[in-house]
Structures are given as C-alpha cells and as structure tokens.
C-alpha cells in the first residue's frame, strides 16, 4: 500500500478505537483466513464469579470453602480471585497459608492449618495420584453449563468441586458471526477443560476449539495452524497470550488486557470488543483495494 493509503487506514482505525502499530499489520490483515480467540477475557468478560460449592462426603461447605480460599489467596489467577471473593461474600475469613506453590496451567497446592490442599484441574489431582472419583460427574455437569469446575483435595482425599462462571461479552456472538460472513474460520484457544470450552464455543458459534492448552503451548498451536497453510490472526488479553500474539501473522490485543499482551501485539482493540477484529479486517481490505 502507498504511505498515503496506510495513513488513511491507520487514521480511520484510530477513530474506531483500533490502534494499528505498523503498515505491515494493516496490509497483512486482509490476508487472514483464520482467527484464533483466547477464551477468558477475550470472548468472555474475564470476571469469573463463584457460583457453586459441591462437597464430597465428610466435608462441610463453609469449612471446605475456607480451606480453598486460603489456598488461593496468593494466586494471581482470575479463578483464584473469584474464589477468594466468593468466600468473603459468604462471611468467611480464611487463615494464612504456611506453604504455597502455584502449578502453571493446573492450579495451586498449599498448606493450611497443617492440611495439604490441592485446588485446580482434574490433571492436578491426577498428578498427585488422587482419583477424582465421585467428583468427576459433578465437574462434568458444571462444564456442560460452560462453568469452570475447580476440583479440590485435602490430605490426598477428593474434597469437593467448586464452579466458577464467566459471562460472554455482549457482542462476541455478533462479531464471530460477522467474521464467518467475511469468510474466516474461527477457533477458541484456552487452558480451560475441553467440556467447558466446548460449551462456550457452542454458545458463541466458533468453528473449532483447542482446549487444555498449557500457556507455553499456545504459540505452538498458532504455528501448527500456519503449517497447515493458514494465515492466522490471534486475539488475546493475557500474559499467557503474548507468545501466541507474537507468533501470529497479525496479533490483536484486547486493550483492557495486560500490558504484556498489548506490547506483543500488532493491533490494540481499545474497547476490548471483538467487533474491533471485524473492523480491522474490513479496514485492511479497503486499504488494499484502494491501492490496486
Ligand atoms: P486459562 O486462564 O485460559 O483458563 P490457564 O493456563 O491459566 O488458562 O489455566 C488452565 C486451567 O488451570 C484453568 O482453566 C483452571 O482450570 C486451572 N487453574 C489454573 N490456575 C488455577 C488456580 N489458581 N486455581 C484453580 N484452578 C486453576
Ligand atoms: Mg485470557
């Protein structure tokens, strides 16, 4: 594109709340055939709320929630925030943990009042040789509703499942439908479990789901799609998403997300709405039409 048409395109983008960092990004966006969307904070609001507490036999609800909230107090994961707030809202005051370890992409392990408490995915429990047993169907039920199940074990015994729900952004469904009308394939990528991801994917209508992807593997998934011959746009908000945003042909960061994601991306969507992805692609197509 000519410098003038790039200037016009960039200016129009800025007016629409789309900050385009380079001429190359504006030029490449019209070639995208696949858009990969991070789930939490990108398709959804990223403000999860604790909705359910299911206890295994022998555990009492407030007692379990107190232990779990104590274990999550030092975690920076949004799920941890939802659980700590949920406990506080129920009038509970969790004690301080005496030991704490965060297991990336899986959960946390903490020592509370001498008890070993595990909080996270079924994989976290399995890694500790704990069979989720009766918790499995409960977790599956929460997932089918699009909620994230958080499994817990205390001293090596399955203790309960909490459910955390996140709201889909108002215009996500509309924006994804618009991407399909433009002829693009859509994919949700998430560290969350496959059932929850599938339920959210069905609600918003994306073509494909990549679930249970560990943070360090998100960029690999982008490269895998590129190896299939696709030109890939990645939309994300989190620190976890930064390598994938950089690996994509065009990285688009949610403006309300983390600075790390914004710095790794080529385009920033100031309002955080996915309609910005549609506008960016339309803008690129218009820019490239003008110069030919
Ligand atoms: P995402 O934020 O996309 O869900 P993560 O890689 O951060 O991806 O986490 C993957 C999964 O690991 C989460 O969906 C959750 O089930 C579990 N997890 C991670 N951290 C925690 C935590 N602090 N407490 C409970 N579960 C967690
Ligand atoms: Mg996210």
Automatic annotation (TrEMBL):
It is found in: Cell membrane. Belongs to the cation transport ATPase (P-type) (TC 3.A.3) family. Type IB subfamily. This is Heavy metal translocating P-type ATPase. It comes from Streptomyces finlayi.
